[in-house]
Design goal:
Layout: E1 5-6, E2 14-15, H1 22-38, H2 50-68, E3 76-80, E4 83-88, E5 91-93, E6 105-108, H3 118-124, E7 126-130, H4 133-142, H5 144-148, H6 152-164, H7 166-172, H8 190-198, E8 219-222, H9 223-226, H10 234-237, E9 243-247, E10 252-256, H11 268-278, H12 292-298
Parallel strand pairs: 8-9
Antiparallel strand pairs: 1-2, 3-7, 4-5, 4-6, 9-10
Helix pairs in contact: 1-2, 1-8, 2-4, 2-6, 2-8
Length: 306
């Protein structure tokens, strides 16, 4: 099971081993770079310290969890492992009294997660609820070793799902029979990527109309658009920061720049094209004349029936 591991060669890069969960790691990497490049003063993204790694990873995970919370008055939820008393590397128990001679020490079970099997892991997983953003940030920071150890990525994914709410996710996914993760190949769905990037588990990448609701902090592009399988809207193509997740047939990558001019506010003509495309989701280049009034209204232009 994967964890969040920083590369020794590129200290701001998260490493993925073998066929790991890029649908979770790539969005976290994108927000991680945003926080390093634009929210951390004086930080050298090529050579951040271990303490900076700890701080920025935990603040990034908290940020994604915040965006997933549908109603800020509701609680945040973290999927965690219980604390355990471990007498040696092969003895993991659920905090039951131990003989004094064994001299156990209280240690988070996550520190010995390598000893946990998949079924055992799911039998002891717990839900921790937090009422405020401050409590959330403190709890995520205290669990840094958990995120770095086995099951770290999975625990974070479960935390996002619990915080968003399963029913809320079902309501946002266009096809409720579509799993968030493909059961055969393990690929993350577009709904999962959108949930992590925008806080909404919508299935589409265009603007509005069961797509992306507003300009995203980091962007998303896909090779599928060049093959005309889909159309990425301006909210993902032109994010708030010049960082994009790039989807290919089988993998997700992240590329970025420090040049903010790449994501300058859209011009009036770009706004007009974006609004027009919301009424032309199939990208035909034209719309019925009955929709012209709606387009004009959306652009705050004269839209009297005459």
């Amino acid at each position: 099971m994967p964890s969040f591991v920083f590369s020794e060669a590129e200290r701001s890069a998260l490493e993925q081993f073998e066929g790991g969960p890029c649908a979770v790691i790539a969005p976290v990497q994108a927000f991680l770079l945003k926080n390093i490049l634009f929210n951390t003063e004086g930080s050298n993204w090529k050579d951040i310290s271990e303490e900076e790694q700890r701080t920025v990873l935990c603040s990034t995970l908290s940020e994604i969890l915040e965006s997933a919370c549908l109603n800020k008055t509701q609680a945040f939820h973290l999927a965690t492992l219980p604390r355990a008393k471990i007498t040696d590397s092969s003895d993991i128990t659920d905090s039951h009294p131990e003989p004094e001679s064994s001299q156990p020490t209280d240690t988070p079970t996550a520190l010995a997660a390598e000893e946990l099997g998949f079924e055992r892991f799911h039998s002891i997983i717990q839900k921790r609820s937090l009422r405020t953003v401050a409590e959330l940030k403190e709890a995520v920071l205290s669990l840094y070793d958990t995120w770095k150890n086995k099951f770290g990525v999975l625990l974070f994914l479960y935390s996002v799902i619990l915080t968003k709410g399963i029913e809320n996710i079902k309501n946002e996914i266009e096809d409720t029979s579509e799993p968030l993760i493909d059961p055969v190949y393990g690929h993350g769905s577009q709904s999962l990527i959108n949930l992590l990037v925008t806080g909404h588990a919508v299935s589409n990448v265009w603007d509005e109309l069961r797509g992306i609701h507003q300009q995203a902090s980091v962007g998303f592009l896909t090779l599928m658009e060049s093959l005309r399988y889909c159309k990425v809207g301006a909210f993902l193509k032109s994010p708030k920061f010049p960082i994009w997740i790039l989807g290919s047939e089988t993998h997700l990558s992240v590329f970025f720049s420090k040049e903010m001019a790449l994501v300058a506010p859209e011009s009036p003509s770009e706004q007009a094209r974006r609004v027009f495309q919301t009424f032309d989701p199939e990208d035909n280049g034209f719309i019925p004349d009955t929709l012209l009034e709606d387009v004009m209204k959306a652009l705050d232009l004269v839209s009297e029936p005459d």
